[in-house]
Amino acid sequence: MSETSTKPYLLRAIYEWCTDNGYTPYLAATVDGRAQVPREFVKNGEIVLNISFSATSGLKMDNDLIHFHARFGGVSREISVPVDNVVAIYARENGQGMAFEVSRLPASNDKGTEGHGSDKSPNVLLGVPAGVTSLTAVPSAPSGQNDDVADINPNGDGDPPKKGGGRPTLTRIK
After folding, report:
1. Per-residue pLDDT tens over the stretch 87-98
2. Rounded CA separation 62/54 (Å)
3. d(CA 169, CA 174)
4. More confident residue, 117 or 26
5. pLDDT of residue 167
6. CB-based burial of residue 113 (10 Å sphere; 0-12 exposed, 13-18 middle, 19+ buried)?
7. How confident is the model at residue 2 (pLDDT cuts 50, 70, 90)?
8. φ and ψ at 68, to 5 degrees?
9. Distance CA 95, CA 166 (A)
10. Is 139 in a helix, a strand, or coil?
């Protein structure tokens, strides 16, 4: 019998931590043919989604699929993202969360993935902090280490990230 991936459990745990602490959980995912997302908000094959309780309806985070309804430009849309496509989940306010490797790469010539009908970038429309254009998957650590947790601190000084503006960072959670 094969083991179930820890990824969906970690996604649910970080989501719960965000909501318990009053943070806004954001989900970054690669977009391919399996992802059902508004293509006009996809940039460079990725999308960032606000998955907070107030931004979604009927959020269901299963082991294989994250499914919910959300409004984009005032129109309710059905969103479906395979767990395999999730690149990161993090709190908008402080950038704390987790980054993951993506097991499959999105199609490189996916037509219609650039922003259409708006001169604003998709990240601005989705409320991503200024300066964040995309998230990149973190490579696995050598075996024996926790390969699902990223430690990204641009300060390099071990201090927690400074609040307010700038690029969010991910902090190692042990």
Report:
1. 999 999 999 999
2. 20
3. 16
4. 26
5. 61
6. buried
7. confident
8. -165, 175
9. 10
10. coil
3-state helix, strand, coil in the chain (%, to 5): 15, 25, 60
44 vs 63: CA distance, rounded Å:
26
Give the DSSP letter string of 43-105: BTTEEEEE--TTTEEEEEE-SSEEEEEEEETTEEEEEEEEGGGEEEEEETTT--EEE---SSP
Classified as helix, coil or strand, 30 is strand
Distance CA 39, CA 95 (A): 25
* Gyration radius from the chain CA atoms: 16
Copy the structure tokens of residue 174: 């042990």
| Among 101, 97, 90, residue whose Cα is nearest residue 171 | 97
pTM, whole model, 2 decimals? Answer: 0.61
Q: Note the CATH number of domain 1-174.
A: 2.30.30.220
CA proximity to 28, closest of 14, 16, 17, 20: 14
Determine the average pLDDT of the residues in 159-173. Answer: 56
Give me the residue label for tokens 């719960």. Answer: 16
**Lowest-confidence region among 90-94, 108-112, 160-164:** 108-112
154: its two tokens: 């641009």
Sorted by where each begins, the domain ranges of the chain are 1-174
